[in-house]
Amino acid sequence: MTDDQKPLGSGFGDRSTAAEVLAGRDLTGRYVLVTGGHSGLGLETTRALAEAGAAVLVGARDTNAARMATRTISGVTVDALDLSDLASVRRFAQRVLATGRPIDWLINNAGLMACPERRVGPGWEAQFATNHLGHFALTNHLLPLLRPGARVIAASSAAAHLSPIRWDDLHFASGYDKWRAYGQAKTANALFAVHLDRLGRDRGIRAFSLHPGEILTPLQRHLTRAEMIAEGWLDASGALADPTFKTPAQGAATQVWAATSPLLDGLGGLYCEDCDVAVRAEAVEAPFVGVKAYAVDPEAAERLWALSADLTGAGVFGRSAGCAS
Q1: Residues 31, 176, 182, 294: which is the catalytic one?
Q2: What CA–CA distance (Å, rounded) separates 234 from 249?
C-alpha cells in the first residue's frame, strides 16, 4: 500500500550487493526480462539473477553491444528494444508474446539521465518518453505473460525530488531543464508502480519502484567531467570523490531485492531504497532521502496512467493480443 512507506528491517543495506541479496536462492525455472540489462546496473542485475539460476531476456537498443557484454553469462538472451520508439516497443513485445513464456519479474531498468534536449515520437521530451512512456507501453503489452505472483520493478531515483509531474507543461515546451526533466521522469516511474500495483493486485501482479543510489555508470554519458566535478562526484583528476557512491553491484541490489524478496509478499506500490522500503521524505531532514508524497500519490498515479494511456494507446489493463501502438 502506498500509505505504508515503512522499512521492514530487511537485514540488507546501502553496501549490500545484488549477489548478496540472492545468496542461497535458487531461481532455476524463473524467467526475467531486464530492459537495458547489459550495461551499468542492468548488467549487474542480469548477472546476479542469471548466476542464481534464472533465465534472463535483455531488451537492448544495441543488440551487438548487449550480446558482447553478456556473452560470459549463462542463461541470457538478447532482443532489440528501443524504448524511445513505440513501434520498436510493440515489435519487441509481439516477439516476446509469441513465445508464450510466462514472466516472473519484469525489471524496467533502462533509462536516460540529464541528456540534451531531444524530441521523440510526436514531439515528446525524450527522458519522459524513454524512461516512462516506453516502459508504460511495454508493461501493458506484456501483461498477458505476467504470471500470478509476478512483480514489475520500476527504476526510479532520488532525482524524483527535483520535480513532480508538470501537468501544464509535460514536455517542456516553455523551456528545457535537463535535471527537472529527469526528475519528472523518475517521479513518473514511481507513480507508474503505484497505479500498476492497484490494477494488478487482484491478479497477483505487484509493482514496486526504487532509488538505486548514486553510482557511476554509463547513465552519466551526457554529463561532462566539469559538471561531475562541480557536483562533487569526481575530483580534479576525474577520480571518484564522493564516498557515498555505490558500486554497480551495490546499485543493482535494491531492484533485485524488490523483485525477489519474500518480505514484500502481499505488499506493493511501495518505493524502496537501500534494499528496504523507503521512508517518507517529509519525515526526515536529510536531502534526497525517502520518497516525496507526490511520487506515491494514488490520485496523481491514476491521472498519469490515464494520460500515458492516451499518449501511447497501450494503457488498457489486460489488453492482450493487439499490442496497440
Answers
A1: 182
A2: 20
Residue 315 contacts by C-beta under 8 Å, 6 or more apart in sequence? 136, 140, 305, 306, 308, 309
Separation of alpha carbons 131 and 214, rounded Å: 18
pLDDT in tens, 255-300: 999 999 999 999 999 999 999 999 999 999 888 999 999 999 999 9
**Cα–Cα distance list, 8 to 126, 198, 277 (Å):** 36, 21, 6
CATH architecture of 18-217+247-312: 3-Layer(aba) Sandwich (3.40)
Q: Within 10 A of 282 (CB to CB), how many other CB atoms are there? A: 9
Place of cell 488498457: 316
Residue 176 among the catalytic residues: no
Domain residue limits, the chain: 18-217+247-312
Packed helices 135-142 and 298-312: angle between N→C axes, nearest 10 degrees: 80
Cell numbers given for 5: 512507506
